[in-house]
Amino acid sequence: MRLLHTSDWHLGRAFHRVNMLDAQAEFIGHLVTTVRERGVDAVVVSGDVYDRAVPPLAAVELFDDALHRLAGLGVPTVMISGNHDSARRLGVGAGLIDRAGIHLRTEPSACGTPVVLADTFGEVAFYGLPYLEPALVKDEFAVEKAGHEAVLAAAMDRVRADLATRARGTRSVVLAHAFVTGGEASDSERDITVGGVAAVPAGVFDGVDYVALGHLHGSQTITERVRYSGSPLPYSFSEAGHRKSMWLVDLDAGGAVTAERVDCPVPRALARLRGTLEDLLADPALARHEDAWVEATLTDPVRPAEPMARLVERFPHTLSLVFDPERAPDDPAVSYARRLAGRSDQEIAEDFVAHVRGAGPDAREQAVLRDAFDTVRADAVVREVAR
Asked: Of 93, 129, 124, 92, whose CA–CA distance to 108 is shortest?
């Protein structure tokens, strides 16, 4: 069976104020063409179909168009909701849409109920694990402590229990939306840290033939059987080095996996440039970036006059301007933002406590801070979904 694995469409999202809807529509067209021309038997979409719980109408219309075009090909599609989606909204009409071969899996309680497809070698069971927000699903999975590993492990127990009841030789595919250990994040994914931990070990998914992951925006191979497709388009300059693609996956009769990357259309190259303003404007080696979307980091010791206007003259698609003067690390003028770069909310709060009273929080106080951050984050998720 040949699968096309994609995820993280983020329909409705902009890139630094640039409307990406046309590029997203071009990707949908490319997806449909790939399905038709490469003999795809099933499409799997591993979450974050939309960029937010209440997407703009234009994004909903594009999603509707994608569903109609996929259904028109007669190729089954299995989709799950991601942490950006409203599972309840995305799942509206799922029963009816199911009849058209579009299988939306947004209910955590249905993790152990697969979509079963068949090829000449027998059946393939597709298990959809939508994004499992630990604070919201811990009761469903009867876990004592709300954490990503605990709820995903419980969901996979249901998958393996169902798979054990099926005919010998039944192959299996799991769709999941999670941060798996070994994956490389970018700046454009929403933080899903719970209890100070965001990642889960790949071993949680043992026992199935292929795991189609979503959430991280870079295409990645965690193991031969566990892969991220990545987003089809860039959504931050941290993705400048990404090769945007989908996975074309073949499952043979015994469940062995072979995978090929299928490149996605590139609306415009990304470039991250760094140096003084005069160097960026004069360096002939930068000519190749003149048509790219540009993030320019200026290292001038004093902020130059009209830097954006001058940059746009050479790089008309400059979207982001950052000032980062070259200074010694102990220079008091080092920016607050640089001191915070790469630090979690928990670490920043602990540093603040240490600054105020001269000693950092003890283990009990660290737990209080962690619980507070988790509660606020979970509450934000609940309120967004309820909108």
From this structure: 129
